[in-house]
Amino acid sequence: MxxxxxxxxxxxxxxxxxxxxxxxxxxxxxxxxxTYKRTYARYLDDKQRTENWDETVKRVVxxxxxxxxRLHQDDLDPQVYEELTNEAxxxxxxxxxxxxxxxxxxxWISGTDYQKxxxxxxxxCWFIGVRPQPYGDSHIVPDYLDHDQDAVxxxxxxxxxxxxxxxxxxxxxxxxxxxxxxxxxxxxxxxILVSRDSASHDESIKLGAVDKEDWLASHSLTDGRYYKLPxxxxxxxxxNANMIDLHFFGTNADHEKNLILxxxxxxxxxxxxxxxxxxxxxxxxxxxxxxxxxxILNDHAGRKLSSVDCTDLGNxxxxxxxxxxxxxxxELALGSADDDAFITMKQDQDKLYHHxxxxxxxxxxxxxxxxxxxxxxxxxxxxxxxxxxxxxxxNFGRAIDGRQEAIDGNVEGTNPCGEISLANGxxxxxxxxxPPVAVAQGWDLKEAFALxxxxxxxxxxxxxxxxxxxxxxxxxxxxxxxxxxxxxxxxKEFGHRVVTGFKDATDPVTGETIKQPVYDxxxxxxxDGLYKAVVAADKYYxxxxxxxxxxxxxxxxxxxxxxxxxxxxxxxxxHYSNYLIQRIRFQDSDPLLPALKACGYFMEPDVYTxxxxxxxxxxRAAHADSSEFxxxxxxxxxxxxxxxxxxxxxxxxxxxxxxxxxxPEEATQISPLMRQYRxxxxxxxxxxYAGDAFQQAPKEPIAKDVYEEKLTxxxxxxxxxxxxxxxxxxxxxxELVGQTDCEGGACPIR
Length: 750
Hints:
The protein is an alpha/beta fold. A hairpin with a 6-residue loop joins strand 17 (411-414) and strand 18 (421-423).
C-alpha cells in the first residue's frame, strides 16, 4: 500500500466549506454574532479584518484534527488520512451550525502559531497544590535550581505562567499543603533597577524602583543576586521566583540577602503584545507585586506562612496579571473547612479591595461533614465559600455507578468553576454540545457527543510546557464533555423540567426528614445513554491511538460566552428570566457600534467605566411562555440542588458546575440542602439572586410587553450593516469589555 508522508496534514477545502455554508445556517443567538466577532474572531492582517465564522471554525478544526499523533508518524496510512479528513468535515458542520463548540480557549487559540509555541494554550484552566515542588523538565526552571529540587516558588511560577497565558488556576492551600512549606529563613533586601533609557523610568521610580545609572555609581551588580528581566512572560515569572526562593535557605545555599532585579528592558505601557493579543502594561504592576510579596515574606522571617498568606501571594499574582492586560485572572483558592482564618479572610475590606478579590474561595469537605451552618452564614453575607467534596471526587465517577475506591485518587482540587476535579498540575479539557440545537439541525446526539470526545482526546496530545502537567495528562487523559442548553432541551424533549416532584425520605446518618427529588425516567434513560456513548467513543479512540482511556469523561461547565453564541441556557443553569435585557459593553471606538445603532439597538455611556458604551439586547428565553418554564428568579433552591444532583448522578463523572441562586427568605435552607446532598454533589457555590438591583446590570428581567416593544425597535442584520458601513474591514485589537467564558464569572474570557 502506498503510504503518505507525515508532512501532509489534514485541510478542509474551500469547495467543502462553501458547500456547508449553502446548506447549514449557524444558530446564532440574539447576542451570538456580536459576541463571536468581539471575542473569538482573530484579526487577519492580510485582509485587514477579523475572521468570519467559517474561517474561525476552519482554523479551529484543522488545529485540532492535526493533533492526532498518527499524522506525525514516519509513515501515514492513507486510510487514516481519509478517515481524519472525513471527521474534520463532520466537526466543521457540527461547530459551524453551532450544534456544539469546543471551549472558548480552543475557539481563540486552536490552529494559531501561538498554539504551536505554547503547548498549554488549548486548555482553559489548571490546578496546582501550594507546597514546595520541583520544576522538573519544564520550559521555566530558575538557573539556581536543579530540576528535581523542591522550591517554594514552583507553584507560584506555574500559577503565574498559566494566568499570563490567559488560563484560570485553582490552587490548594489546605493545611496539609501549607504545613509542608518551611519557615521563612530570612528577610531580603530587594532593589529594582530601571534605566533612564526606559520609557517606564519615571512611573517605575514612583513605585519604588531605583535609577539604574545613579545606583551603579556607588554599587556593583555583584553586590547580590542579579537578574535582568528579558521582555518576556518568563522574565516576570523568574523575577518572582528569584525573590521568593531567596527567602529560604533550601534554595539559597549561600544565604544571599540582596536581590537586584533590572526591569529596564520591559516594553512600555501601550506596546502591542504579540501572540495572545492585547497591549503591554509596562513594568509597573510587576514592581508593585514584587514589593508586596517581598513585604509579606520579610514580615514572616523566622515564622511559617499561613494559608491566608499563601492565598495572598496567589492573589497578588492574579492582580498583576489583570493589570498586565491579560483581561481577567481566574483563581480559585481551596482551603480547609475548619480554617476559620481562611474562610473569613475577605472580611478584611482593605485587603479585599487591594488584592483578595482576585480569587473565588472554596473549602474542601468530605461526606462525613454534617454541620454547614458556619459556611451557610458566610455564604449569606459574602457569597463564599463554595464547597468542594474531594472524597466524592476521588472515589466516585457518576453517583449512579457507586463508590469506586480511588478511581481518581490523586485529585486535590478543582478548576475555578468547579466542574472538573483535578490532580496536581492537571488542566481541564472541555467541549460542549448544545442538544436543543443539535436535535433541531438533525444530528444524532450520540454522534455529536462522540465527535466532541475525539476532539478533546486530541488536545491531550499537545506538547505541554510543564513536566508536572505532561506526567498527569499522559496518565489520566482526562476530558470534560459537557452539554449546555440543558433546561431548554429537557423542556423541549420531555415537556417538563427534570425534577417532577419531591417525596419524603430520611437522611441515612442524621435521621432527619428530607425531601428526595423525583426525576423523569425518560430523561434518566436518555442522559444515561448519552454518557455511555461518550465512554464508548473514548474507549474506541484510545485503543486506536494506543493510549490510556480517559480517567473521567463528562461534566457540565457553567458556559457563558460560548452559550451566548447559540443563544441557549448556560450549562445546567436556568435562564435568568423568561424575558430580559442582556447588556454588553463595548469600547467606545468599536466600529460595531454604528452598525448596532443603525439596527436600532439602544446604547448609552457605561456608568462604571470611561470610554465604554453599554448596548442593550432584548432576549426571550426558549419556552418563555410555557407553564413548565422556570427562571433563576423563581426556581427554588431545592430544585436547583436536585437538578445538579440529577446531572451528577446520571451524566457527569467529573463534576457539575452550578451557582445556585437564592432569595433572601431561602437563606435558612442553605445548610440543610448542603447536608442533604453531601453524598452526591462534588462542588457547588451559591449567590443571592440580584434581579435588577443595580444600574446597567448585565441581565435585567423585563415583562413580555416590554420585550416586544424593544424588539419592534430593532431592524436589519448587524453583520450585513457592519460589512456595508466598513467595506468588510475591521479594527485590530478591539474586544468586548467585561465578558467572561463562564456564567459565574470565574473563568477567563478566552
